[in-house]
Amino acid sequence: MHGLINQSIQGFVCDTYGHTVWEGVMRQIDPGFAEFEAMLTYEDDVTIAVIDAVSNALDKSPDDVLEDVGTYLISHSKVRAVRRLLRFGGVDFEDFLHSLDDLPARAKLAVPDLILPRLELRDHAPQAFSLMVYPLPRVAVAFGHVVLGALRAMADDYGALVFLDHRGQSGEAEMIDITLLEAAFAEGKSFELGVRASS
């Protein structure tokens, strides 16, 4: 598993629950190090052990932990680059949804050795979609709930009222049902294409 993914879980725990909780997680799994390095690769078993240990520490299911990680990646000020990458996908939430098929390729432009799950959006009716989240080859961690959390946060970012439902496995992929109830339900958060230089 790419170190950036493991580091995202670490950042979520530290920034949301504190370093003491993270230290307890690492003591429990005892991988031989205290923190993940972004540019290293780790065995899937380590990532799975971390998710299970965080789940136990927070008294949440692993799926809920992964969904919270997805929300953190969009909404926390320390990881603005992920939000920016996704906001480049469109001017409103529906445009953003239709850009998700291209997300793994866009991510590779930023981090060439980062492989994200293949995403496939399916239109069923006006404002009704499903998003298929395919597993990574030879990787045991499923990412559907991370995507679900990111979608919830992005809907809030765009000011859209959206109903999301993780439907579980559908063939090879995890399926997320998406119903766009109102595209402009609330005022979205501001977003500028250029990064403003600090004075």
From TrEMBL:
GO terms for biological process: cGMP-mediated signaling; response to oxygen levels. Gene3D superfamilies: H-NOX domain. It comes from the Bacteria. GO terms for cellular component: guanylate cyclase complex, soluble. GO terms for molecular function: guanylate cyclase activity; heme binding. Pfam families: HNOB. Residues 2-158 form the Heme NO-binding domain. InterPro entries: H-NOX_domain_sf, Heme_NO-bd, NO_sig/Golgi_transp_ligand-bd. PANTHER family: GUANYLATE CYCLASE SOLUBLE SUBUNIT BETA-2, SOLUBLE GUANYLATE CYCLASE GCY-32-RELATED. This is Heme NO binding protein.
